[in-house]
Inverse folding.
């Protein structure tokens, strides 16, 4: 998986023969400097540039160009080289851009020789700077890593090289620019704008975060059988949020990895030069849908006034969906920037203290104490700056959440949102529905909705076993099972509520009747297709009917006769809720369940498991594909969902009905009434 780096973030390199690929919207000069353990350049022979493109282990482009490929062999660099800095500069000359702020943000990727990306970084936040250190490959404890730097210099190459300790900086910078001007490095035209599929990283650039997508937002798996919150291996996605997006938009499985790919806004082409480019919300701009409403400009020192539905989209629902996705991504990136900055500060302090200890003359005495205190003070300053940036971004996102949450439609809203009091059975299915909330340790108050794209592309697993959360670790098994069934009922009720009458049918298997209390609202209001199946005979009958349905639809589709199903055939989406698995299941039933999980979603048959994986431990690895194929949710807060960009462990909180609330009865009663009317 590619690591999409933010400023200051590092990533280990598992190979030493690499390519550095650079893409920009205008011809630029690319080069590399070699540094010792303190980052200093020993002479002009430690700089690779178009006029002298080859050094041991390094080869750079011989021309100014919009696209570059630099070759790197870290095993071939000299033993006293500890740092390889990749630098970019704008060619000097009349009529060209005077700073990176007036051109498209450069995109830099480190790849293996097979072309697979290892890490990437979009350099945002630049203005008048005409030279920038993009990345550095550095040696630490015998291993190589890559760090996103993004340090710009308004004084151009001269200032950059001077900062790295080169005495002949002015002469070398002039020589590089002269070589470009004389045509030693021939400029080539900028390529056409990158497409969405071709450059996900540049879509996700966000200057304030320094900091996803397949149709699902959270593609990474963080727990057994778990996938990212929004899709991908972990879910389906919208066009990450917008990922399952979490995969293209959100969970198409989940949104932000689509959070679903089909709904991602296209990346705008680079605008004409002449002014800075705003990369704060790249996913929220598109040339196709009508422009979203804009917030009034913020006064100096004040937060931007947020507006509900400020993302692109053809409808308010789609705009809110994409806005939620943007909030998820913004929170992921700003938190990654904070953590990376703190890690950078910690590494810097360690290096400075190591240097003090390595010199016997400075180990004792006032000079050593002063140096140690200076290192600690610098560390505190860097951490404080990172905290201030995080607090600023969290305040903006919190203000946005406070505006967006009340504006959400029922499918996206919490159960305590007043919008449910005015609920009416919809005429068409929404884009997605809410499965719960996500948050990070640095932002306890800020909750981002976890949206899953519809129709369902994968089943759900409500884990009734002991989870890794602090709440779950102290709850007894009976309490967890009760909470899991309540969570399953809430999810089922929401699925029923967001579908038009007659387009969603629910079946329940409860072999021992242990879920009767939690299932009571569904049974009492009559929204189920029939009474919960009990005992081994009930399990076999329910599974047999749904398996037969899947077989019948598959045969009809393969034979091109999808419109010729038998009269009275229920063409609605089907959901099977299974409680207490594997109680009441024999080997045949287990195989049928696996079949439904694998083949059912494609023909409208979906699965919701309420189970403790340990209870089915006797089947060994036979059921591993089943658990992996389901999106794991929990009945109590648990940090088991991971995003695909920076790998945060997001804490998931289920969308439960508030204690004592009658909203569930109100909604289910309307669903049941609409269903009876439809059946007449």
């Amino acid at each position: 998986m590619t690591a999409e780096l933010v400023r200051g973030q590092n990533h280990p390199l598992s190979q030493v023969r690499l390519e550095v690929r650079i893409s920009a919207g205008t011809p630029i000069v690319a080069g590399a400097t070699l540094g010792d353990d303190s980052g200093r350049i020993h002479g002009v022979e430690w700089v690779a540039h178009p006029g002298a493109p080859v050094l041991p282990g390094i080869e750079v482009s011989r021309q100014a160009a919009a696209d570059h490929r630099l070759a790197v062999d870290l095993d071939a660099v000299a033993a006293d080289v500890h740092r390889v800095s990749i630098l970019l500069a704008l060619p000097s000359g009349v009529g060209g851009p005077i700073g990176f702020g007036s051109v498209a943000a450069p995109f830099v990727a480190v790849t293996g020789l097979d072309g697979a990306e290892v890490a990437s970084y979009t350099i945002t936040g630049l203005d008048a700077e005409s030279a920038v250190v993009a990345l550095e490959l550095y040696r630490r404890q015998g291993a190589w890593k890559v760090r996103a730097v993004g340090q710009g210099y308004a004084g151009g190459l001269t200032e950059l090289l001077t900062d790295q300790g080169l005495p002949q900086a002015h002469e070398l910078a002039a020589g590089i620019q002269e070589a470009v001007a004389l045509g030693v490095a021939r400029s080539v035209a900028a390529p056409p704008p990158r497409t969405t599929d071709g450059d996900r990283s540049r879509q996700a650039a966000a200057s304030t975060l320094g900091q996803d997508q397949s149709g699902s937002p959270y593609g990474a798996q963080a727990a057994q059988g778990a996938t990212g919150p929004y899709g991908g291996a972990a879910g389906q996605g919208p066009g990450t949020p917008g990922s399952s997006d979490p995969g293209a938009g959100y969970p198409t499985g989940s949104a932000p990895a689509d959070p679903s790919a089909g709904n991602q806004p296209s990346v705008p082409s680079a605008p004409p030069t002449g002014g800075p480019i705003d990369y704060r919300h790249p996913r929220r701009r598109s040339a196709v849908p009508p422009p979203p409403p804009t917030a009034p400009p913020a006064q100096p020192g004040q937060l931007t006034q947020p507006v509900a539905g400020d993302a692109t989209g053809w409808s308010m629902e789609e705009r809110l969906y994409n806005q939620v996705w943007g909030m998820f991504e913004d929170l992921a990136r700003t938190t990654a920037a904070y953590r990376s900055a703190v890690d950078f500060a910690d590494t810097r302090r360690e290096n400075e203290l190591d240097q003090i200890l390595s010199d016997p003359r400075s180990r004792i005495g006032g000079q050593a104490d002063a140096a140690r205190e200076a290192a600690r003070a610098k560390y505190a300053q860097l951490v404080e700056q990172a905290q201030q940036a995080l607090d600023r971004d969290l305040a903006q996102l919190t203000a946005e959440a406070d505006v967006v949450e009340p504006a959400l439609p029922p499918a996206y809203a919490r159960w305590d949102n007043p919008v449910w009091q005015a609920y009416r059975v919809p005429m068409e299915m929404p884009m997605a529905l809410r499965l719960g909330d996500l948050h990070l340790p640095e932002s306890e108050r800020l909750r981002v909705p976890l949206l899953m794209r519809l129709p369902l592309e994968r089943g759900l697993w409500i884990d009734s076993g002991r989870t890794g959360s602090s709440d779950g670790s102290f709850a007894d098994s009976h309490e967890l099972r009760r909470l899991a069934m309540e969570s399953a009922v809430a999810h089922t009720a929401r699925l029923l509520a967001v579908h038009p009458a007659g387009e969603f049918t629910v079946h329940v298997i409860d072999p021992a009747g242990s879920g009767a209390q939690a299932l009571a609202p569904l049974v009492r209001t009559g929204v189920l297709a029939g009474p919960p199946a009990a005992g081994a005979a009930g399990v076999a009958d329910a599974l047999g009917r749904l398996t037969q349905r899947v077989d019948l639809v598959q045969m009809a589709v393969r034979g091109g006769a999808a419109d010729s199903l038998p009269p009275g055939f229920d063409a609605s989406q089907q959901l099977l809720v299974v409680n207490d698995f594997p109680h009441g299941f024999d080997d045949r039933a287990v195989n049928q369940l696996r079949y439904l999980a694998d083949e059912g979603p494609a023909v409208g048959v979906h699965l919701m498991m309420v189970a403790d994986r340990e209870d089915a431990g006797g089947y060994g690895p036979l059921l591993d594909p089943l658990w992996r194929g389901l999106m794991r949710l929990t009945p109590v807060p648990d940090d088991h969902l991971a995003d695909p960009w920076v790998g945060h462990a997001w804490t998931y909180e289920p969308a439960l009905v508030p204690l004592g609330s009658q909203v569930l009865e109100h909604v289910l009663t309307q669903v049941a009434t609409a269903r009876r009317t439809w059946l007449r």
User: Anything to note?
Assistant: The first strand starts at residue 3 and ends at 4. Residues 459-560+569-679 form a domain with the Rossmann fold fold (CATH 3.40.50.300). Confidence is low (pLDDT under 50) at residues 184-288. Residues 316-358 form the longest helix (43 residues).
